[in-house]
Input
Amino acid sequence: MQNVTDRTSNPFGLRPPFDRSDPGDQVAAFGYGDANADFHVIGDFPGIHGGETTGIPFTETEAGVEIQAVLRETGFVSGPRDKPVLENCFWDYVHMCSLPDGERPTDEDYADLERFFDAELRAINAHILLPVGARATDHVLREYTTQRHRFDLDMPSLHARDIRGRGFMVIPIADPVEWVDGDREAIVSKLEAVLASDYRQTKGVATLVG
Output
């Protein structure tokens, strides 16, 4: 079943509960891309993965640009870097709102925005979840699999590994600023392998296993 929206940015019209952005910044980096996507890439917040001035996830910052480059290489992205065109891929953050320069979200801030992230994730209903970094990976494994207790939150060992969830396959991605030799190649190879597989069977298999 497909969604009934073709809007690229903020396709479900979410309204953030607060505006603490710096002058000239966007209120939030809203969910962006193909609302009918099979692949859902999940970052942390605009201050580290980008979008404070563009309003688009995975732009501007070193980490965001590197994630975007990997997705370009694997065929999900085309067009300008600051306003990319996504195919079969959707991007958002566990904390979408922009914050004052240098400020990080508190646990309370993440909790305030959890319902927005959860609503969007369930509306997209992708087959493959790709959380980027420790915070996003921890949240996705806790909330959308039954397997968080099986793993230490050790991103080098979780990177590019497939984990069965409750109706999803989860493939964590270590934050690009922490990548070492081979990490970029590992996630590119994993995505290429998934694309070459019958990944749409993930829904049924993961529901039984997770």
Summary: The chain is about 35% helix and 10% strand. The mean pLDDT is 92. Strands lie at 32-33, 39-43, 77-78, 85-86, 89-93, 128-131, 163-164, 169-170. The chain has one domain: 32-151+161-209.
